[in-house]
Triosephosphate isomerase
Amino acid sequence: MNNNQNRSPGDVTLDVFTGVISQVFLGKFTAVFPKLFKCQWKTYEGQKKFYADFSTDNSNMSGRKFCVGGNWKLNGDQKSITEICKTLSGASLDPNTEVVIGCPAIYLMFARNLLPCSIGVAGQNAYKVAKGAFTGEISPAMLKDIGAEWVILGHSERRAIFKESDELIAEKAEHALAEGLKVIACIGETLEEREAGKTNEVVARQMCAYAKKVRDWTNVVVAYEPVWAIGTGKTATPDQAQEVHAYLRQWLTENVSKEVAASLRIQYGGSVTAANAKELAKKPDIDGFLVGGASLKPEFIEIINARQ
Ligand SMILES: O=C[C@H](O)COP(=O)(O)O
C-alpha cells in the first residue's frame, strides 16, 4: 500500500520544505567551506561517494549535461600542474557543467590527488589491450587503477603524427569502454578536406568506425575538432560548428538510433577561448568543449562557465 495515501497535504508540504532547506543549506555550506569538507575524505572513493549522494541531474533542456574537457597535451610539470589544479579547485564552477582534465599520463595520479572528485581526470591515450609486451603503452585498466575515469581517443594529433587509423582508434574505444572508462572520441576534418567539401564524408567515416565497435554509447562523448581550428587561433564560427554537430546527430539517427542521436553529447574543439565560448555554447547541438591551449590558463574557468 502507498504510505502517501494516509498523509495530509500539510505533511507533504513540510517534507518538501525540509528537503529544499537541507539541500540548499548543504550546497551553500560545501561551497563556502570546500576545504573543511575535503578534509573529511580519507580516500578518493569516499569523496566520490559523497558527491554522488548529493549530485543532481544538472542537464540542460536537451537532457544533455554540458561537458568541458581540458586537454593539456604534452604540457606541464609538477609546479605548473599544482598551480592549475589550485586554480580549478578554488574556482566557482558551474555545477551544471561536467569538467574533465586530460593530463599527461605521468602526472595523472598527481593531478587526480590535487583535484576535487567533481572534476574528472582523463588519459590522453590508451592501448587496445589490458597488458602485455607493448613497450611505452598504457592501458585503460591502468588508468582506472590510478583513479582516472576518462580517456581521450582519436585526437587528430594521434591520427596525424602517430598514424593511428580509424580502426585502431575504434578498437581502443571498444576496449576502454569494456574496461569501464568513459571515452572522449575525437573526430574532425583537415583544411584540405573542408575545402574539398568533404567535411561530412570525413566525419561520417570516422563515426562509422566507432559505430562498428561501440554497442553502448552511454559512456561516450564525441569531440568534433576541425583540424584547421586546432591551435591555430582560427575557431569555427558558431554556425559552422553547429552545422557539423547537427549533421552528426542526423548521421547518428540514421546509422545508430534516434535515442543515441538525442542523448549523445558532442563537444566542439579548436581554438576555444573565453572570448568565443559563450557564443559557441548557445548553439543547440554543442554540448561542451574540448579545449587545448586555453585549458592551461585561468581563462579555462570562464570556458567552463560559458553557459552561465
Ligand atoms: O583537444 C583539444 C584540441 O586539440 C584543441 O586545441 P586548442 O584549443 O589549443 O586549439
